[in-house]
Each structure stands twice: as C-alpha cells, then as structure tokens.
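User: Hi! I have a protein structure encoded as tokens and I'd like to know what sequence might fold into it. I'm fairly new to this, so please keep things simple.
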C-alpha cells in the first residue's frame, strides 16, 4: 500500500541531519578526504562563499563546491547584469511598474481590525509618497530592514538586541580595473592562493584585520565575452577578503593601503607585469561602500554568516510569521547569499506571496 507509513522511511528522515553533515565540521570533512594541503585550501574557500569560516561552518556547506564542479559555471552574454535587465523586461511585459531612484523609508504596518497579527499596509518612500499594498516583498538586508524600516512595536520577534546578535558574514574589497593590453595567462576565473590560507581566515573571522597574504580572485570576463572591453584591453574584477565592519578599521586609510598591497602582489607574485602602469580606469569598493550603497549589514557580502548550525539552517525566513503580508528575499534570508541562492529566495518569496493572496502557484 503506497499510503501506508513505512518505518524505515521515518528512520531515514531522522538520520537526515547526520547524513547531510549538519553536526559535522566543514574543514574536518575536507581534511578527511583530501590529503593535498593546497587543494584543501582551495576547498576551504568555498565556505567563505556563504560568509563563513571552514573551521566553524557545518559540513553541509561542502555542497557548494560539489554544485559548482558538477553543474559548472554559467555566464550570460553581455555580463551578469543582463539577468536584471531581462527580468525587468519580463516584468514590464506582464504589466509590472518598476520605480528606480525611489528609496523606501518605512514598511507600513498596522494592527489588524480582527485583533490578529499586525498586517502590512504598504511602503512609504523617502519623498513622503505612500504606496498601499496587500503584500510587501523586501529585498534589502534583513537586519537593516528590521532595524530601519519597521516600527519596533511591530517586531518584538526581532528586537535590536537580537539583530545585534546576528553575526555578519565575511566581506571583501573589490577593484574594478580597466587595463590597456591583455594578460593571456588569466582564465575567465583565476585564483591566486596564498602560502598560508588559514592566516587569511583568522584575519577575517577572528582578529578582524586585513589579511597579510590574501587569496586574490581575478575575473577576466573578456575570455568568454570580448564585448566587455575595448579591443586589446582587459576588464578585471579583483576580489580580496576583508572582515565585516566593527569599528576597528579605518577604511579611509586601509582602502588605499590594501589596494596598493594587492596591485603589488598581482605584479610581483602573480605575473601581471606593469599592471599599475596599464590601468586606465579604476574603482575601489570596500565594506564601507557596501554598507552605505546597499545597506549591507556591517558591509558583509553574503548577509548573515553561517558559522554555526543555527545561522546556517535557521536564517530569518522568507515569510515573517508575526507580520502578515511581509516577505523577504535576498542574501540575509533563506536559503543564503550569492547570486544563485538569492535568485532562489526570490522564487520562494514569489510563491509565498501567491499563496498568501490566494492565487495558484505555477
């Protein structure tokens, strides 16, 4: 009988947390299967893609390198921003109104007339305009949203002290470089690993300092899409680890110093000769920029860190269970940070909204 309860299936569900490594450690699992110290360091870095240290994160996160190696990486012609452009085109074709340059100052919440949970009423823009809504999907950082956009009396489940206890994930410094000439030794994705990768992790998650010898990631998208730079030139995206903001570092000073350190390392240790002389355009982004421009909590890249089982598996949910009609998408909610997971969070939130307003889910 296909409807009869199978006790073996129930046993399988009980053992799921153990089988997926919920109670194991990321680094110990890697070490158990990989003997090469260099390859271990490469795999350790995948934990940082969820804002976590491999020495503290649950082993479940080893699914990240598996997904990349098994399914591969994908690049939209024209660059990653084409995803946003195409989604906007699709939305407008369906009658969606998109307003840009319209920052939200408040998510409007009111008490229910029936005495049940409070309910969203819409949003208030910075210019004072109020937009009524039956449901609100907030895609800003969850910590920022609760702290700055929702009246404290409507969020007893997320008071400031709980928000303060949510550990931000790791951050980084980005250099956007337009370079004369080409570096054929670079692939689309190139990582220059340090001699002691553990020292970078200690700097980012323990001492909260600038790594002395960081891993340097360089993306040369012209390898796949020549349209991304003029003929005979490169556009290089350079990313290096940095701790989230906690007041210890003055990025007005550390930004230029760290940038000079990275450019020097790329020239002298990574083989990108005369890089500094060949830079035509340059932009630097630090955790301060990420916090100011994108309201990222503590300037983190991947939202809330995953350095514990609770943080990794019990992230703030996509549906607020105390405020009816309020939903979240983005890197600080379920299922996590990074473009693939953020896109999934949007899909999850959209399905929850359809369910909430009584529409069928496709």
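Assistant: Happy to help. Inverse folding works backwards from shape to sequence: for each of the 362 positions I chose a residue that suits the local structure. Here it is:
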């Amino acid at each position: 009988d296909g409807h009869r309860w199978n006790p073996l299936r129930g046993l399988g569900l009980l053992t799921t947390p153990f089988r997926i490594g919920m109670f194991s450690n990321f680094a110990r699992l890697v070490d158990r299967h990989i003997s090469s110290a260099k390859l271990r360091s490469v795999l350790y870095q995948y934990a940082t893609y969820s804002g976590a240290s491999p020495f503290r994160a649950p082993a479940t996160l080893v699914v990240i390198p598996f997904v990349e190696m098994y399914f591969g990486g994908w690049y939209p012609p024209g660059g990653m921003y084409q995803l946003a452009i195409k989604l906007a085109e699709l939305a407008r074709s369906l009658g969606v109104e998109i307003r840009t340059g319209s920052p939200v100052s408040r998510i409007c919440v009111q008490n229910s007339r029936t005495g049940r949970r409070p309910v969203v009423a819409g949003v208030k823009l910075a210019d004072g305009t109020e937009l009524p809504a039956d449901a609100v999907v907030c895609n800003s950082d969850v910590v920022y949203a609760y702290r700055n956009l929702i009246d404290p009396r409507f969020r007893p489940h997320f008071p400031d002290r709980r928000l303060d206890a949510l550990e931000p994930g790791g951050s980084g410094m980005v250099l956007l470089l337009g370079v004369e000439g080409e570096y054929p030794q670079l692939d689309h994705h190139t990582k220059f690993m340090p001699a002691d990768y553990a020292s970078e992790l200690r700097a980012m998650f323990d001492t909260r300092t600038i790594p002395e010898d960081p891993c340097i990631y360089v993306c040369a998208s012209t390898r796949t899409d020549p349209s991304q730079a003029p003929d005979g030139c490169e556009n290089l995206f350079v990313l290096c680890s940095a701790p989230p903001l906690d007041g210890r570092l003055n990025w007005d000073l550390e930004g230029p110093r760290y940038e000079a350190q990275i450019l020097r390392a790329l020239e002298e240790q990574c083989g990108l000769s005369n890089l500094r002389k060949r830079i035509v355009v340059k932009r630097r982004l630090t955790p301060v920029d990420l916090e100011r421009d994108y309201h990222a909590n503590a300037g983190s890249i991947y939202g809330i860190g995953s350095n514990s089982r609770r943080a990794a598996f019990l992230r703030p949910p996509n549906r607020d269970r105390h405020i009816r009609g309020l939903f979240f998408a983005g890197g600080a909610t379920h299922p996590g940070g990074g473009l693939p997971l953020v896109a999934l969070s949007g899909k999850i939130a959209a399905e929850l909204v359809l369910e909430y307003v009584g529409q069928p889910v496709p």
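A useful reference point when you look it over: Strands lie at 104-110, 119-125, 130-132, 136-138, 171-180, 189-192, 216-220, 233-242, 279-285, 326-328. Feel free to ask if any position seems puzzling.
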